[in-house]
Model the fold of this input.
Amino acid sequence: MQRSVSLALVAMCVIGTTVQAQAKKHATPAKRVAAARATAWKEVYNDQTVTVALNPAATHHEADGSYSTQLRWTYATDQAIGRDKSYRSMVETRLIDCDSIRSKPVRAKTYTAKGALVSSYDTKPSEMTYLSWGKRKPGSASESAIEGACKTIRGS
Done:
């Protein structure tokens, strides 16, 4: 009887250790994914009015030499949009030509300070050829943000 109790205790310890190891194994990747998401954005521009960050995981080199990027703009104050609407942050996808510091807007979503969706747009792929490359106003936060995104993309 004593031997069967000992075997039962050993079996319980082995099972318990296996369950703990499996639980740890499954928890670790989730923690890594959460940590990667938290650190995925890289700040490319910051002044007293706006902080702009680039999502390197959503940056892709296009066949024409430009980059498809995802930028997050976080403003210090509300930004007017439309008659009675304002937003505090925007996440946009933008094509950027780093050689000439030009860009094309692809899609964007704007949000209130509390994170509620304010507005969005999405340029259809068939319309992209008709959309002109635009340059941002020299010395503006927008131009500086595009330049900062290019520096981050190119690693300089």
The CA atoms of residues 10 and 16 lie 10 Å apart. The chain has two helices and eight strands. Residues 1-39 form one domain. Strands lie at 42-46, 50-54, 60-61, 67-81, 85-97, 102-111, 117-122, 134-135.
